[in-house]
Design goal:
Blueprint lengths: L11 H13 L4 H7 L3 H4 L1 E4 L2 E4 L7 H13 L2 H10 L25 E2 L2 E2 L1 H20 L12 E5 L6 H9 L8 E5 L4 H8 L7 E6 L6 H17 L5 H4 E5 L2 H7 L6 E3 L16 H7 L1 H20 L6 H14 L5 E6 L7 H13 L17 E3 L11 H6 L6 E6 L7 H20 L3 H10 L4 H11 L7 E6 L4 H21 L11 H15 L9 H13 L1
Parallel strand pairs: 5-6, 5-7, 7-8, 8-9, 10-11, 10-12, 12-13
Antiparallel strand pairs: 1-2, 2-13, 3-4
Helix pairs in contact: 1-4, 4-14, 6-12, 7-12, 7-15, 12-13, 13-20, 14-20, 15-20, 18-19
The protein binds 6-O-phosphono-beta-D-fructofuranose.
The site of 6-O-phosphono-beta-D-fructofuranose has 14 residues, from loops.
């Protein structure tokens, strides 16, 4: 069954939220805390090893109730059932959206066209497990009889960002294999990756759901040509494997059927790391850890599916985005993990969130008259404090920020971890409280500043505060807790799409540029072909051709 379609701004709850916003917009978080002793407790959710404190957001209990009323009026519950049950909720591509089935247990039943997909999911997992174990143990040998030492993942977008982020995030759990990622069609990228590799001990994993993506196929072809400069054709079988839905094209590329890890079209690229697309993750950290990652995600699926909206972490988190995006008119959200391991997390979520919800046509095909997808950005703390935090603290834009921190560090260096986390706590407090003129004044006086200096400096040293943050505290970074965290954001994306009445699972927006690039490539490579361009583009192409 199709998703329902309602313009959210026409709901009763939306109107109530608009009126409510007028009472909230000028309230300061500091005052909200001082007038309600229970605020922190009331606006904190704990679940498994997650402690999620929403209380430093510009909301009251009434705001949360109204946002939930909005979700109810838009029948979020019904949409969640359709999502998990395999309904065609990706209507514009005519597909179900079932990354959740990839982490469902063996005894689950999820029907697509009347057929339970779970047995096949577990068959592919078994194949991933068997292959991972043989490569990691050294049983799988390269063509010359040497064990594999290096893995190269060749893919782009969802076939790169998820695996790359997770391998980086779980490097503490890594085995002896070195893992590399080639994504950009920039030839210098693959050259830099292969320059120190030994083809005799390297395994290439070509990942492309469609197996038509220009970047991935160009990189795969160039890397295979480089490989064949030193190895015979028969060696391809033990050094190249592929992950795809397009089995025929993979075979045409020259990869044995036995070396193909299939995936289904109901797995969206940006939600595919749980499928065979995660093969590089499994190879890098071992199958057991890969499975724990999936188990963590499944636990979050259950939490999301079965918990009342009041206590539902992805639901509340998504509704807060709607609150800021559509009422406060804030345009972006920052994601700041206080762990270097999540260095690529914001980049990964940029695709997940912006490719999904960067839409301006609703589920009736009409142009929306309200804001949809937010801009996502971020870098780990404390590095980001020394880069862009100035703007979050004292700039003119309101930037709701997620702080992600861990109670335990992985190597257990308490001194460093306390320093790291003291920054995490300090930043959320500072963003909320700010610093008033009278506080700045007494501080300057304490520093014996002259009246002249005080006059000059006072305004610059004031922090308005009232900057919203959500604090996620997780016990420890593990494959399981990472699975939970990623799935939390996946479900947040879903909820936002339902509220905004858009289709979150297509990505037509990336097509136009791709088509134009194809025809311009002909102009760059075939003499005599001249395109019909605006003068700016024409001049740029001519300058490039004349000087290369
Ligand atoms: O950027 C568009 C996109 O279709 C993504 O959604 C996808 O993750 C990526 O290209 C790669 O596609 P494929 O896995 O088919 O090579």
């Amino acid at each position: 069954m199709a998703l329902k379609s309602t313009n959210p701004t026409t709901t009763e709850a939306w109107k109530k939220l608009q009126a409510h916003f007028e009472t909230i917009k000028s309230q300061h978080l500091k005052d909200m805390f001082s007038s309600d002793a229970n605020r922190a407790d009331e606006l904190t959710l704990t679940w498994e090893d997650f402690y999620v404190d929403f209380s430093k957001n510009r909301v009251t209990k009434e705001t949360v109730d109204l946002l939930i009323e909005l979700a109810n009026e838009l029948d979020l519950k019904d949409a969640i059932s359709k999502y998990f049950d395999g309904d065609i909720i990706n209507a514009t591509e005519g597909r179900a959206v079932l990354h959740t089935a990839l982490r469902a247990p063996k005894d689950a039943t999820v029907l697509v066209d009347g057929e339970n997909v779970i047995p096949e999911v577990h068959e592919v997992k078994k194949k991933i497990e068997g292959f991972t174990n043989s490569v990691v143990s050294g049983e799988h040998k390269g063509h010359t009889g040497k064990a594999i030492t290096d893995i190269v993942n060749i893919g782009i977008g969802g076939s790169d960002l998820g695996p790359a982020m997770v391998v980086d995030a779980l490097q503490f759990y890594k085995n002896h294999l070195s893992t590399h990622f080639v994504s950009n069609v920039d030839g210098d990228h693959y050259q830099e990756v292969i320059k120190n590799l030994n083809p005799e001990t390297t395994l290439f994993v070509i990942v492309s759901k469609t197996f038509t993506t220009q970047e991935t196929l160009s990189n795969a072809n160039s890397i295979r040509a480089w490989f064949l400069e030193s190895q015979p054709k028969e060696a391809v079988a033990s050094h190249f494997v592929a992950v795809s839905t397009n089995i025929e094209s993979v075979k045409n590329f020259g990869i044995d059927e036995a070396n193909i890890f299939p995936m289904k079209d109901w797995v969206g690229g940006r939600f595919s790391l749980w499928s065979a697309v995660g093969l590089s993750i499994s190879l890098a950290v071992g199958y057991k850890h890969f499975e724990s990652l999936l188990e963590g995600a499944h636990k979050m699926d259950e939490h999301f599916k079965t918990t009342d909206f009041n206590d539902n972490i992805p639901v509340i988190s998504a509704l807060l985005t709607v609150w800021y995006n559509n009422f406060f008119e804030s345009e972006s959200e920052a994601i700041i993990p206080y762990t270097q391991y999540l260095n690529q997390f914001a980049t990964y979520l940029q695709q997940g969130i912006m490719e999904s919800n960067g839409k301006s046509v609703d589920r009736d095909g009409k142009k929306v008259n309200y804001q949809t997808g937010t801009l996502i950005w971020g870098e780990p703390g404390t590095n980001s404090q020394h880069a862009f935090f100035q703007l979050i603290h004292q700039g003119t834009k309101l930037i709701p920020t997620d702080f992600i921190g861990y109670v335990e560090s992985l190597y257990g260096n308490k001194d460093h971890h306390n320093k790291l986390m003291s920054n995490y706590f300090a930043q959320t407090e500072a963003l909320m409280n700010g610093k008033t003129e009278s506080e700045v004044l007494s501080e300057l006086k304490e520093q014996s500043a002259s009246d002249e200096e005080i006059k000059q400096l006072l305004a610059f040293k004031v922090f308005e505060g009232n900057k919203p943050t959500t604090s996620l505290l997780i016990q420890k970074l593990s494959p399981e807790s990472l699975g939970k965290l990623i799935a939390m954001y996946e479900h947040k994306i879903f909820v936002q799409g339902i509220i905004w009445n858009i289709y979150s699972y297509d990505q037509f927006g990336v097509e136009l540029g791709k088509q134009l690039a194809k025809s311009i490539l002909k102009e760059l490579t075939v003499d005599g072909i001249v395109g019909n361009h605006d003068t700016s583009t024409q001049n740029l192409i001519s300058f490039f051709k004349d000087n290369c």
